[in-house]
Design a protein that fits this description.
Number of domains: 1
Strand content: under 5%
Distance between the termini: 27 Å
Order of helices and strands: HHHHH
Helix content: 40-55%
Radius of gyration: 13 Å
Structural class: mainly alpha
Largest sheet: none
Length: 88
């Protein structure tokens, strides 16, 4: 999957790859939503976790700052509003 995605000249962002990664084979039903004032689907939180891991960030502080600087990525991830640090 990743080889085919990155073979396209316009596909040069690992974050955009994570956004397009099919997650149909994962089962998140038991933890379908984060039940606070804002609701985040588990597949969205999983994608955000992948981005954190890809960058090698040990804490969510760097991830939160990164998300705040990239509203287009947040839109692709359907993060509205951006989760707080405790959610991440």
């Amino acid at each position: 999957m990743s080889e085919a995605w990155f073979a396209h000249e316009s596909h040069d962002s690992i974050e955009r790859f994570v956004c397009s990664l099919p997650l149909a084979c994962f089962r998140f039903e038991a933890h379908d939503c984060y039940a606070k004032s804002a609701r985040y689907e588990m597949d969205t939180l999983f994608r955000v976790f992948l981005i954190k891991e890809i960058h090698g960030w040990r804490h969510e502080t760097a991830l939160l700052a990164y998300l705040e600087e990239d509203p287009d990525l947040c839109g692709e991830l359907e993060l509205e509003p951006i989760p707080d640090q405790s959610t991440l």
